[in-house]
Amino acid sequence: MKIAAIDIGSNALRLLISHVHHVNGRPVFKKATLIRLPVRLGEDVFLTGKISKHKAKLLEKSIMAYKEIMDVYEVKHFRACATSAMREAENKEEIIEKILKKTGIQIEVLSGIEEARAIFANQWKETLEPNKVYLYVDVGGGSTELTLFANHQAIASESFKIGTIRLLYDHVLKNEWMRMKQWLHQNTKELKNITAIGSGGNINKLYKLAEIKSSKPISFDKLKDLEKFLTKYTYEDRIKILGLNPDRADVIIPACKIYLTVMKWAGCKKMIVPQIGLSDGLIRLQYQAILNES
């Protein structure tokens, strides 16, 4: 079985196609391809409130290209979901309708909580220790989703309009930072030894730059050192010397700031980086929906 997911984020679009096999009665998801396109919808939305004609055209072309690739892979089951930038775009309905007519692909706009739930569908949560508390931190271009886990259950969850693209263009309101700080204080004040779990393209790249042994957590101090290391380089040198993609080189430092701020306010000394994201969760939710229908 082949299942696909299209993740329409504020910074980039991703198409993930996975093969699903069964081993000892359990599903095993193996990536067939992952294609990332740096459309950066948030660049428009967080500055003007709308998706421009240029970005809308890029989005349409991207979805059409993804459709062709899914056809080649003979994908029968897929979901296309958009997050923060599309949530806030004043002209989202007309863009979604136009893309549906041109490509036949229906885009779902997820709320912040729905986005978090989709990521929870990933298998990593089954490996968490039931007697420990975890803070899930997903940093995107337009928003940050925070969820507290205890005994394999989400006990509190909230979405904040704090993202790398917003921060890059100085469009994060001071009140939103305060709201996040208050939420963390209120929900973690009686908890100790909280371990953070990070997701998003930036934390995955930071984890690789840290050269940490696979499956080992990254410490707050190591992440702080990485932030200092990255700020020594210009934007151009982050591309030329460190080998970062242009649309990663400018947002990776804002991402560092968000992760470090959350960890500091929650008292987290380390972060697990399972290197999964929304598209992985959408694949698993789609698989479960297929099972329920059969």
Short description:
The chain is of the alpha/beta class. It has helices at 42-48, 53-72, 84-88, 92-103, 112-120, 164-168, 174-188, 201-210, 220-231, 235-240, 246-249, 252-266, 278-293, and strands at 2-8, 13-23, 26-37, 77-82, 107-109, 133-139, 144-150, 153-160, 195-199, 218-219, 270-272.
Explained architecture:
The protein is of the alpha/beta class and about 290 residues long. It has helices at about 40-50, 55-70, 85-90, 90-105, 110-120, 165-170, 175-190, 200-210, 220-230, 235-240, 245-250, 250-265, 280-294, and strands at about 1-10, 15-25, 25-35, 75-80, 105-110, 135-140, 145-150, 155-160, 195-200, 220, 270. The protein has a six-stranded mixed sheet with strand order 8-7-6-9-11-10, with helices on both faces. It has a five-stranded mixed sheet with strand order 3-2-1-4-5. α2 (about 55-70) runs parallel beside α4 (about 90-105). The longest helix is centred in the N-terminal third of the chain and has 20 residues, at about 55-70. The chain starts with a strand and ends with a helix.
| Number of continuous helical runs | 13
Order of helices and strands: EEEHHEHHEHEEEHHEHEHHHHEH
Strand arrangement, largest sheet? 8-7-6-9-11-10
Average pLDDT for all residues? 92
Broad shape: globular
Please indicate the percent range of residues in DSSP E strands (runs of 2 or more): 15-25%
Beginning-to-end CA distance, first to last residue: 14 Å
- The secondary-structure class comes to alpha/beta
In which range does the helix fraction lie?
40-55%
What is the number of beta strands? 11
**Main sheet: strands, sense, barrel:** 6 strands, mixed
Name the poorly predicted regions: none
Calculate Rg over CA atoms.
19 Å
